[in-house]
Amino acid sequence: MLQFTVILQTFFDSINCMTEIRNIAIIAHVDHGKTTLVDRILYQGKLFRENQQIGELILDSNELERERGITILAKNVSVRYKGVKINVIDTPGHSDFGGEVERVLNMADGVLLVVDAFEGPMPQTRFVLEKALEMNLKPVVVINKVDKPGCEPELVQEAVFDLMFSLGASNDQLDFPTVFGSAKQGWMSDHWERPTQDVSYLLDTIIRYIPPPHKEKGSLQMMITSLDYSSYLGRIAVGRIHRGTIQARQNVSVVRRDGSVYKSHIKELYVFEGLGKERIKTPVEAGDIVAVLGPEEFEIGNTIADFENPEAIPPIKVDEPTMSMIFAINNSPFYGKEGKYVTSRHLRDRLFLETQKNLALRVEETFQPDTYMVYGRGVLHLSILIETMRREGYEFQVGQPKVIIREMNGEKCEPIEFLSINVPEEFTGKIIDIVTSRKGEIEGVCTRNNRAYLEFSIPSRGIIGLRNAVLTATEGEAVMSHRFKGFETWKGDIPHRRNGVLIAMETGEAITYSLDKLQDRGTFFIEPGQNVYAGQIIGENSRSTDLVVNVIHTKKLTNIRAAGSDEKAILSPPRIFSLEEALEYIAADEYVEVTPNAIRMRKIILDHLKRKRENKTEE
Asked: What is the number of other CB atoms lying within 10 angstroms of the CB of residue 31?
């Protein structure tokens, strides 16, 4: 039996050595059907039994990804089709996760550009596609969702060509093949009016047009482009072999970003097969994507090279962070009641651990031992980190997001973003007013099917809190997306018209009687029976100033009865904030308190008298 297992392992290893390879990354805007298309490719590759219950969105395995319907972490799987191994790399569609995108494209030889047949190419598509074209990757265009009513696949194909031309694509890249179909219905074809039975046409197109990996001769070179972790095996380095071959039990050198080299040994080697990894003992040639167990002190961007003559690959260049935020331990009166990890040591270790695998994130210690400055690509990028930590049991506080200001050629410069808003035509005027009041400039307006597509360039400062204003003005009809453009001259101060807030005077349980009597003061964020503490933000004032109110005041009971004294309290429903909305809502003197069970807003200085003194000192 043991002999048979060895023969079988040798057989699979030999197949792996002989197999042709295609490495493709999938690019798409949020919700254009990219992860559903990967599901169809996996089914076409017969990775599952016919009676196996798998479900949908197989690659969006992260709980947050399934909730939000977006891809956050890049992942890779492989399928075998007609004797060719196709490594499929699923990439995030949002520019806030650009750090993931940039390192993943280093593993690909071509890209699958998935575009919605109704919406056409969107800003996030442009962001990732620009990176792919710069790296000279061959594109295959997939026009998805052709079953949508009112879609225009041929016009979308022309729009994709115009986009590639504007991004400076080469003649070879502009001569791209186009595949039409519906990932949801499970078919792909050469024409949108000719449905087929499966997605085999797409896989045939990939094999025909995406070039196999270029195999350079020379010593081993493999760039570490992502990290995996196993509680049993420890840290695992994942990357594509650029040159030479790699084998288990081989001695190697690891070249760091600063040029320093340390010697190591490969204990185990894995290749990607289907949704998992398979251990392999034979050498793996250049072009394949492998997982390496053995080296311990490594980071993303390091090179695994030859033991005697190590040569480094130029490290991955990632766009700089555009936004910063303070992370601090929780010091509110409710400290330690809900969280599992509450100390500054826990917070510090978790943040620095995140920087090892999240390339676009930077963490700096401040002069206060329990406070850290975290830099990221945007509010969504930082809020995903906060939400992940919250679900892991961490309890902490975060400050107002602030954009990073730079000095360039003696001028004060700030990050600028391309903003795209899709709204019904009748709301166009309102949207232009809102965006231009935040120093936005109109780049283009186009109307199609009673909807207007508005494009602006706007400071990153102007985007903080913009989503709520846009959705309110358009009755929830707007679709908004943005991507980083670059640093430009400071545009001037942006007027903020946020009303003041209602602040709890004392710690205790909110009483219906008090909330009812204070309703004319503004909108509340809490419900009756909810515990609050002094200094917590519990509502929005109807005026521009902050107001301290007592919501734990109960009705004084007497033995005298009067008509109308016991009228029924009718409360308006409270305004509930998501994490992103809370981050965009708070002012510079406020924190968002994050615990596994709650998201609360509070003043940094909780005591009302101390806050008054501080404000007078500043004036």
From this structure: 17
